């Protein structure tokens, strides 16, 4: 595909506009979510695992070693543990909410950068590239999990980076290039198990990219990519699922059964797919339909061949998720966090869809690149601004807000019963978080935790009951 060019002045203008939109979007997102101290159960549990502990250990338990971190992850987590280890090192910089949430946010920013780099490879136009980089910020699921202290933004970033490197290495294939791609893919595989679907699809793309080369060379390229990924799979298995002290199970937990296609009636399956299509996932459908339409018409001007790797990825990853769900192994829900890879690929298909429709129609002769840049920048910018302005870390966990509304100082001389699902968050808030300043003389002495491994068993009257969503006064409160 020939590089799309505009005059230097127009390009510079759209680069400045897009860069300002980037700044506005990132600032809005961080202001809305970046310092939120209400870590819900999974997030606070992630914090403790990265300190070498599990969710329900006694208050003031000393931090563990890296070996303890790995054991905590295989005991209390459902992910391979790469994010857990990364957070363990990140904690050297502090434990404030804003610092903790910056780690997943950096993966989101890297995802935006990968989108921009992809668009630059596709078009050669910096203004269009920066505008395309705004697309992830216009996707609510991606912005919502840009700050969650879990591995979801790392997984989404992994999909984007692997896709970018497939295109980059595929331009001038070398063994070293595919080896580098495999090593990067292997690192991201430690984020979440579901990323294996993307990496398997990428292997097919590697083989397809080199279809015209001798078989021995194709095999060498595929091996260069596949060996690091296979090594990562083996290492992850030995450290997690296959470890004798592991508690992780390959079966999906009960709370995702609503989105498991196995055993569902046709009506229920249609309902699940309908919910998915009502989300950003529709972008994959539109991209796939547009690519097939151009392919069937043999419309070379549309440039559809450039997007064949993306089409293969979208097709195979979606097929893998659907097959796993029909087998009862994984939920199919692109609108929810477990389907964030599908959501990312749907977002990746939006810009190519616009390009194919523009280049493959009479609009190409009637609409200049400058006007297309305007349309893409306005559409992506408006969507990104709207989503970033309304993104919130909404959950049922309001422990910090409720305690501040009550007044932490009022807990002096009072006993607080902490329900099991609130325990890891309460421990974080008083031991490392923003309530640490109120802990003296109050925590943990006045707290009775529901889990038996608890320091307060005196049987004294309870003044307050604390759950993730509420704090209520006991009828026996003094």
From TrEMBL:
Keywords (A to Z) from UniProt: Membrane, Transmembrane, Transmembrane helix
Keyword Transport in record: no
Transmembrane segments: 12-31, 103-122, 152-169, 175-208, 220-240, 272-294, 306-326, 338-358, 370-389
Protein name (record): Glycosyltransferase family 39 protein
Organism (species): Geomesophilobacter sediminis
């Amino acid at each position: 595909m020939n590089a799309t060019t505009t005059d230097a002045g127009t390009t510079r203008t759209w680069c400045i506009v897009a860069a300002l939109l980037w700044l506005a979007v990132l600032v809005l997102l961080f202001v809305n979510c970046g310092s939120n101290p209400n870590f819900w159960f999974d997030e606070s549990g992630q914090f403790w695992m990265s300190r070498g502990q599990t969710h329900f250990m006694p208050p003031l338990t000393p931090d563990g070693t890296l070996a303890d971190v790995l054991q905590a992850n295989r005991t209390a987590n459902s992910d391979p543990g790469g994010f857990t280890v990364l957070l363990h090192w990140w904690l050297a910089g502090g434990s404030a909410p804003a610092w903790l949430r910056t780690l997943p946010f950096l993966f989101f920013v890297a995802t935006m950068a990968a989108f921009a780099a992809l668009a630059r490879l596709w078009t050669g136009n910096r203004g269009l590239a920066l505008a395309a980089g705004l697309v992830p910020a216009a996707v609510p699921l991606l912005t919502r999990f840009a700050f969650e202290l879990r591995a979801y933004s790392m997984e989404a970033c992994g999909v984007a980076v692997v896709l970018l490197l497939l295109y980059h290495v595929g331009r001038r294939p070398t063994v070293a290039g595919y080896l580098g791609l495999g090593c990067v893919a292997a690192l991201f595989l430690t984020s979440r198990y579901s990323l294996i679907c993307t990496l398997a699809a990428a292997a097919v793309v590697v083989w397809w990219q080199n279809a015209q080369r001798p078989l021995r060379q194709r095999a060498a390229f595929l091996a260069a990519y596949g060996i690091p990924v296979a090594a990562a799979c083996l290492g992850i298995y030995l450290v997690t699922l296959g470890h004798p002290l592991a508690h992780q199970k390959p079966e999906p937990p009960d709370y995702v059964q609503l989105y498991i296609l196995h055993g569902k009636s046709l009506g229920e399956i249609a309902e699940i797919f309908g919910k998915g299509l009502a989300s950003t996932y529709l972008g994959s459908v539109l991209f796939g339909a547009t690519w097939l339409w151009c392919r069937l018409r043999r419309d070379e001007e549309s440039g559809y061949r450039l997007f064949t790797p993306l089409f293969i990825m979208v097709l195979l990853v979606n097929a893998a998720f659907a097959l796993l769900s029909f087998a009862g192994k994984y939920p199919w829900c692109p609108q929810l966090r477990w389907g964030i890879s599908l959501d990312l690929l749907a977002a990746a298909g939006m810009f190519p869809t616009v390009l194919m429709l523009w280049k493959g129609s009479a609009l190409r002769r009637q609409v200049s690149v400058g006007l297309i840049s305007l349309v893409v920048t306005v559409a992506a910018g408006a969507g990104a601004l709207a989503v970033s302005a309304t993104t919130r870390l909404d959950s049922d966990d309001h422990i910090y807000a409720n305690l501040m509304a009550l007044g932490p100082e009022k807990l002096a001389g009072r006993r607080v019963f902490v329900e099991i699902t609130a325990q890891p968050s309460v421990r974080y808030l008083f031991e490392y978080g923003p309530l640490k300043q109120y802990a003296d003389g109050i925590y943990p002495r006045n707290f009775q935790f529901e889990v038996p491994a608890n320091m307060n068993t005196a049987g004294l009257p309870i003044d307050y009951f604390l759950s993730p969503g509420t704090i209520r006064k006991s009828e026996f409160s003094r």
